[in-house]
Amino acid sequence: MKVLVQRALNASVSVAGEVVGAIGHGQMVLVGIERGDTEADADKLADKLLKYRMFSDAEGKMNLNVQQVDGGVLLVSQFTLAAETKKGLRPGFSTAAEPAEGKRLFDYFVEQVRAKHNKVATGQFGADMQVAFTNDGPVTFMLES
């Protein structure tokens, strides 16, 4: 399981021209589910995501997490994070979870994040989504289980 987390000033995701999820200051998070990922992986990453110190303190050092800055979290499923890219010029997706399992684990991940944080929005699993955000920094990290 992989999450690409970006510190954002704002973020939103739209489906068919309608905004389905949006946050102000916080984390824009792309979530990739791979074959073999488990609920334990989701638990571990949900905890790490919320505790990851990527926001600046009064001295400008990354010492604060999203909960400490009362930021939002926008979770967007992104199966292309599981792509095989080492060989060739076209990505392969045999390492990505099957759609039904990916949805189940994505939904579980969302539940775990929501259980620990009250400002959580999501995209729509499997939809053609348009994501808009302003990366603050820029600050971007890949977290993996």
Q: Could you explain how this protein is built, in words?
A:
Homodimer. Its EC number is 3.1.1.96, 3.1.1.-. The chain has about 140 residues and is of the alpha/beta class. The chain has a single domain (about 1-145), classed as D-tyrosyl-trna(Tyr) Deacylase, Chain: A (3-Layer(bba) Sandwich), CATH 3.50.80. About 20% of the residues lie in helices and about 40% in strands. The protein has two helices and eight strands. The protein has helices spanning about 40-50, 100-115; strands at about 1-15, 20-25, 25-30, 55, 60-65, 70-75, 120, 130-145. Strands 1, 2, 3, 6, 7 and 8 form a six-stranded mixed sheet that branches. Strands 4-5 form a two-stranded antiparallel ribbon. Helix 2 links the parallel strand 6 and strand 7. The radius of gyration is 15 Å and the shape is globular.
Question: What keywords describe this structure?
Answer:
globular, 39% strand, D-tyrosyl-trna(Tyr) Deacylase, Chain: A, alpha/beta
Question: Overall pLDDT, averaged?
Answer: 97
* H/E element order: EEEHEEEHEE
Q: Total strand count, please? A: 8
Straight-line distance between termini: 5 Å
Summarize the structure in short.
This protein is of the alpha/beta class.
Topology of this structure?
Elements: E1 2-15, E2 18-23, E3 26-32, H1 39-51, E4 55-56, E5 62-64, E6 72-77, H2 99-116, E7 120-122, E8 129-144
Helix pairs in contact: 1-2
